[in-house]
Structure formats: structure tokens, C-alpha cells
Amino acid sequence: MKAPFPKIKTAIVPIGLDKDDSSALAMAKALAGEVVLVGVVTVHNDEMVSAGARAARSVRKRLMELSEGPQVRFKSSIIVSETPWVDLQNLILHEKPELLVVAWKNGILTIDIPVVEVLSNIHVNVLVVGGRKPNNFDKTLVAVRGGPHAELALKVAISMKPAQLDVLHISIASAQNDAPFKGYKRILSQLPQVNPRSIVTDDVSKTLFQEAENYDLVILGTTASGSFGGPTIGPVAEHLLRDSKATVLVTKIYQETTQEVFDESSGSRAISVLVDKWFAENTYHSKEFANLDRLMELKNASKLKISLAMPALNEEKTVGKVITTIKTALMDEVPLLDEMVLIDSNSSDHTREIAEDLGVKTYIHQDLLPDLGARTGKGEALWKSLLVTSGDVIAWIDTDIVNIRPHFVYGIIGPLLLNPAIQFVKGFYRRPLKVGSKIQAGSGGRVTELTARPLLNLFYPELSGVIQPLAGEYAGRREILENAIFYSGYGVETGLLIDIFEKCGLTAIAQVDLLERIHHNQELEALSKMSFAIIQTVLHKLETRYERSIIEDVNKTMKLIRYANGEYFLDVEEIAEKHRPPMVTIPEYQEKHKK
């Protein structure tokens, strides 16, 4: 099973003479792949710095005792200083850890540095550990209001993998505005291991302290102001650190500015937690599924039938190699695929003849379901492929792939066989761009980066972790695909992704690294048309969400700028991105598939 998040690479734990800092070490080891111990000795104003030599030897001995095992290493030089925090900051800037974990004791850190000094001037995320020494975290409580430190609190809690994880929102009865928590409501419902709770009270500190009695671990964000005259860590956190019977973690996230903004924008931090978690858990590599015998075992155990449909339009140069490569590896040698079909868009070259000669069933999509009218477009071909295939899983790949390999197919099928919860799998890859005679590695996918991903980040931020939403290699379960809306043209990939997300949630989607894909790059004008269709698709989805019209039909014509005979002129082309209803509603489909 994949980890909920990429594990924190490095955490720094300052170690002093006080043995109570062992709780900070235990927490760091639970969260980070590598823990760096730093010895700290504070010399007070009335002492000579050299007087710290004896203490430094004792701390060094502690470091050696605590650094057993490959996970923990220690800095051989001990910080002995009247201003140890300054030296520790310099070390942090050099080591660049992702986390600083410190132990709290009566308002002072166990390394004899005031808490406010650390929290007011940091260049790293901080965890302050207090309360009972860590034992187990079976029951964990995260208290959030939606401020900037809640992201780290939630991420830490999920990484601990507790048996019970409650996220508690405590709102003040007299508060007029509870905007900071609004962005979290949508996100928490998409984290199945989280149990959201809400309480309204006039005494936050008392209420949270009473709730903490029922948990092993309590995590909350600090409210440190960043000025020495303000609260050191916040009265609520200080109360818990001082008196709670639970282990208490107080989080402080590093920000470029120390000013904390508590508004609805803090919901974006909650979304980053959700997307980070999804990216770590649901991103695969095609090489994970290279053992085809193992894939066959999974297929036979699940009793699934798998179809591959290949849309095509004038691809005689590449279609033969695509079919031969996949058919040989995944039908003849290993029967992973039960059928292959070509869905042709009425090619004028020899695409269909090549496919038929290679033994692949071939259909002209304009001839299918004639009563519904014939539309052009790849999306129309994909929609109608549901009618002529019989598999429980349907995979699609484009037929213009120059560097075709079997992993383009088994890579997108693998997650569906491995995890029954996954409904839809997108491929992604590096796309070289050919400019003249030169190849620019990774410069392809211009519409993806300039149109599709910015739109998804803006309107569907949960999908911001999808690397290539427009990739032509993807697969899904028939049950979800037959209930999805298909856009007929360039918007088909974007529309499917959004539709499945809205119906099934983010965790039902996965993505697979297919390495590198080489195909024919399109001219700029074609890319402009593609962008126009994709924008229409997203706006149409937003119209459905908000139940109001955003664009009129008149806006679905595109003015193309032409140049000829030394003059510029305008040419108007209709690019109306129409959509088809769920295939399961079509009578011919119902009859064929006995719905």
C-alpha cells in the first residue's frame, strides 16, 4: 500500500541536557525518513562560553546514544552559544530540512530557548511536542479553524495512520464570520479516513481540553503572533501542552510573511493536503505492471473482460505498428486483452484496410447509431466504442504513437486490476516537441500546460495533481463510462475527467507514468481550436454546477486570423463542443448490453 503522503525526507531535532526531548525524537522518527540530531547548549549572560564545554560533552554522549540505527544521524559539532537559536537557524538554512521538531516544557523548549523565539522567526515548518510522552496514536484529534497551520496539522495526522482520526472544528458562538473553515468542509468529505466533527462554544480552551481527554494524540495549529510582545504559542495550545494527558503537537507552517490571513483562501491549503495525498497514493508507474503473468492472475481473479478501442483518422503511417505491437504482446503471447477494435472517423487513406488485414474489427463511427446523426470528432468515436465493445474494462489509446510499446496499454489497465476502488486511469508521459529538425525534450503538451491545467487549477483544484488531463491513453470500468457524458470533440478528455470526479470523487481516479510518447505535433492553429473547445467544455461543466448559462451559442464560433498575399483577414469557424448523453440511456445500447 502506498503511503498517504511522500514521507518527510529530513527532520531536525535539537537535543539538550533535558531528557524530556526524547518525545520530540520519537515524533520525528515516526514522520521523517531521516532525522538529524543537533546538540544545543545555552550559555547565559553571566557565564563564559567556555563554561559550556562540560555540558557539550554530556550532550554529545546523549547524541551518540540516541542515534542508533540508519534513520538517525547527529551533527558532531555542538552548538554552544548565548544565542543558540541564531546558530540553529544557520544550520537549518544549510541542511534545508522539511521539519523542525522541538520539545516543550513549561513555556520553554527543552533546549532552553523560548518558544516565541522559534515560532516568530523560522525558515522551516515546526512541530512543538508536549503533554504526555508519545505511546500510541490510535485515537487522534486534529483541531482546526482553517488557518494557515491547519494544512500541516492535517498532513501530520494522516501520516500517523491512526485507527481513529477525528477532525474537530470548534466555532465561537458569538463569531459573526467563520470563513476560515469554509474551504475545509468540501475537502474533509473526500478523505475517507477522517471523521469530521463540529462544536459551537463560548469557551474554546475549556471545550478542547475536555475533548482531548478522549484521545491519545491532539494536533492543532499555533497562533503565535510573530512579535515578542504577543502570545507565545496561543493560550489554547499552551493549556493543552501544560495540562493535557494526551500527547500534544502544535504546528507552525513556514510562510514568507509572518502575517496570518484567516479568510476563505485558507481552504486552498486544505486542497493541497487532499491533492498531495491523492498524488502519492494514486500515481503509478507502468513498470509496476510489467509482470504480465501477475496481471493475468489479477484479471482471472477478478473475472473481468478487457477491451481495447483505438480511435483513428488517417493514421496509415502508424496504425499498423500500433496494432501489431499490442496484439502480439497482449493477445497472442499473453491474453490480457479479450478484444481489440478500431473506431475510425471515416479515414480517406488506408487506415481501415490495414487494421482489417491485421484481424482487428473495424467500425466507421459515423455509421453507428445513425438515427442520432453523424458528428465528427474523437469524442464521438470514443462514445460509440462503448456500443461495439463488450469488456468490463475499456481502454483507449491513440493510433498515432510513433514509439508504441505494450506498456502504453498494460500500464493503464494495471491499477484497475490491482485496486477495485479505482474507476478511471489516465496515462501521462514526457512529450518531446519537434521544431524543424530538432527535438525539444518535454516541450510538448502545449494545450495541456497553457489551457487545460490552468482551468482545472482554477475551477477544479482537486484535479490539479493530474499531470496530463488531455492524454489520449486512459481506461475505465464500463459501469462508470456508460453513465458518463462524452463531449464529441477535443473536450472529451477534460469532460470525462471532470464528470468522473464529480460522480465518484478524486480517489476513484489514478494516473500512470508511461515514460515518453512521440507523436505528430500539430500546428498552432489546430492547438488554438483545441483550446477553444476545452474552454467550452469546462464552462459547460460550470453551468451544470451553478445551474446558470455562462456562454451563448454565438460565442461558440471562433475567429481565426489568416494571412495571405501580404494581408491579414478573419475567417470564422464554428467550434461548438457538443456532448452526448450517457450511453446507458440509448435504447440500442440497452438492447445489446441487456440493460
State the separation between the terminal residues, measured CA to CA: 36 Å
CATH topology of the largest domain: Spore Coat Polysaccharide Biosynthesis Protein SpsA, Chain A
Relative strand content: 15-25%
Helix content: 25-40%
Q: Tally the helices: what do you get? A: 19
Number of strands: 26
Tally the structural domains: 2
Query: What value does the average pLDDT take?
Result: 85
- Biggest sheet, in brief? 12 strands, mixed
Give the low-confidence spans. Answer: 226-231, 257-266, 434-444
Structural class: alpha/beta
Query: At the fourth CATH level, what is the homologous superfamily of the largest domain?
Result: Spore Coat Polysaccharide Biosynthesis Protein SpsA, Chain A
Radius of gyration: 29 Å
- CATH first level of the largest domain: which class? Alpha Beta
Q: How does the overall form come out from the CA principal axes?
A: elongated
CATH architecture of the largest domain: Alpha-Beta Complex
